[in-house]
Amino acid sequence: MTSLKGKSVLITGGAGFIGSHLIEKIIEEKPGGITAVDNFFLGEESNLDKAKSSFPEISVENIDASDYEKMKNAVKGVDVVFNLAMVPLPVSLVKPSWAFDINVDITRVICELGREGRFGTLVQYSSSEVYGTALHSKMSETHPLLPCTPYAASKAACDHLVHSYYKTFGLDMVIIRPFNNYGPRQNDKSYAGVIPITIKRIMSGETPVIFGDGTQTRDFLYVEDTARATIDAFKQQNTRGKTMNVASGREISINDLVKAICNELDWTKPPAHEKRRPGDVDRHLGDITLAKQLMNFKPTVALEEGIKRTVDWYREKYSV
Ligand SMILES: NC(=O)c1ccc[n+]([C@@H]2O[C@H](COP(=O)([O-])OP(=O)(O)OC[C@H]3O[C@@H](n4cnc5c(N)ncnc54)[C@H](O)[C@@H]3O)[C@@H](O)[C@H]2O)c1
User: Fold this and answer.
1) Fewest C-beta in 10 Å: which of 6, 93, 217, 256?
2) Does the CB atom of residue 16 touch ligand 1 within 6 A?
């Protein structure tokens, strides 16, 4: 077992949703230094307000993580890189080629910097989207990778690239593969996911929208559980070279999810249904046996509680 105490860490996508929660959890580990790399494509400086209040020395680098020269400079003296930066799935539906290239380029650059010995360990973020629609449930890490969108294909390519650098060059790495995340600070503007967008619509008095018939299922994990698992994945050295699902192990349909949000916000009218999104997977349910075995992973926040916390946060944000 290793620790983050006194270590210098760099988080790409650090001003994003999961990145900012990860930084707050990293601070609890008493690191020596923290660098958040973000080009603010979707991230926001204010996402780091809470982290800065307890660790004012955070260095925020407004750079493109796919820029080798700038990243070479940013990783100087860094022990651990947590690679979260990417453009998300909805962007890949409108700008597929650009989204694919940028996502793969970020990981390519980081792999190269790792191969050159410019930092110690890479903790790479994958996504359950790489599996595509479940061929069987629950989905373990051995489920075939059948990405349905250019975003998912880019994430799968990144996973293969990182693993190839482990095999070929001995890069010290672990890949965590989160299923759907939710919680405070999730992007609720362009390209938003179902939970923040539904909350925002209801708060503005607009009918919530479900794409397709809503029977598609997802496995939602509260963001703080993901952040804790990410740190444990670094600390437990038996994880090296492995890819681990990080999920709740519980499945919910989008219809039931939207119903739960409506209940929390006392919204009684039925949601509207719009055309199914291209590439939308039918079923996702994560098998977390490996993460339990390797790092004693256990989700701690139930969906009902997590939705309540998330709604409360957006209520405060919009003073509703
Ligand atoms: N949110 C989820 O449900 C979920 C599920 C599975 C996996 N993931 C993975 O988790 C990671 C974080 O996702 P998130 O939900 O926090 O998304 P996010 O969009 O909130 O965070 C990503 C951050 O990366 C930044 N970014 C984008 N392009 C960049 C570039 N070229 N250089 C530097 N920064 C750049 C964005 O500005 C943003 O702050 C991603 O790797 C994603 O694939 C997320």
Assistant:
1) 6
2) yes
